[in-house]
Design a protein that fits this description.
Helix content is 44%, strand content 23%. With 237 residues, it is of the alpha+beta class. The protein is globular and about 50 Å long. 34% of the residues are buried.
């Protein structure tokens, strides 16, 4: 049965690759991606719409501000309609970080604020946090209870690179350890890091800041250019 399962993986993988190639051909430009995503959105196929809008974003991220705002607002709205207010808030954060303030962004700011349960999301450190890395790619931090009254952190940092659609992230990493602190200020321990490689966390509401020491050997948990430091936003419990 195990051999049979492995043999089944190849046609499934090829089928997935064929679908990805077809999707890429259907939205080779930002305009095409907008059309493909909008059609999927109108049909209620929100997962496909989000994928197309992410492709749209990759094609405009370094270009026209108005096109960037359109792509981000597409992602905010599609995630809201898909029932993922946390992810909509994450995309809204990207728009605000880019100083976008068009009428759609202002409207979606209000919609996200009305939809997202901020008190519930802020009540505990436990949950899923994301840090934007460009090219519609996010680094992830999962905080869970460790069963002894404390917390465990699992970082999955990525560096997107220029051709993430074709080849995936340029670099990835993995760092796990115990969090020691009061749930607001915490430090990472038991993470197989050298004693001088401190990683500290500061949680304020749904935002979390991670500060780490940059020194020889301190970023050996991932590929070139990988880091867990930066600002994260909590998207789910």
């Amino acid at each position: 049965m195990l051999i049979r399962s492995k043999l089944l993986l190849l046609p499934l993988l090829l089928l997935g690759l064929a679908g990805a190639v077809q999707a890429t051909e259907e939205c080779a430009t930002a305009v095409q991606c907008n059309q493909v995503g909008s059609a999927a959105y109108q049909d209620g196929r929100f997962e496909q719409a989000i994928e197309a809008f992410e492709r749209q974003l990759r094609r405009v991220e370094e270009g026209d501000t108005a096109q960037l705002e359109l792509a981000l607002n597409n992602l905010i709205l599609a995630n809201l309609r898909a029932g993922d207010a946390g992810m909509a808030r994450a995309w809204l954060g990207v728009a605000l970080d880019n100083n976008l303030s068009g009428s759609s962004t202002r409207l979606h700011l209000r919609k996200v604020a009305e939809t997202l349960n901020y008190p519930a999301l802020s009540a505990s450190p436990v949950g899923r946090y994301l840090r934007y890395g460009g090219q519609a790619v996010w680094s992830e931090l999962l905080i869970s209870e460790d069963g002894n009254g404390g917390y465990h952190a699992s970082f999955s940092p990525v560096r997107a690179g220029a051709r993430v659609e074709e080849y995936g992230p340029a670099a990835i990493g993995e760092l796990d350890g115990k969090l020691v602190g009061d749930g607001v200020q915490m430090r990472l321990e038991d993470a197989s890091l050298d004693s001088g490689c401190a990683v500290q966390l500061l949680r304020e509401g749904i935002e979390l800041r991670v500060q780490e020491v940059f020194a020889e050997g301190c970023q050996d948990y991932g590929g070139m250019g990988i880091s867990v430091g930066g600002r994260y936003i909590k998207v789910s419990r």
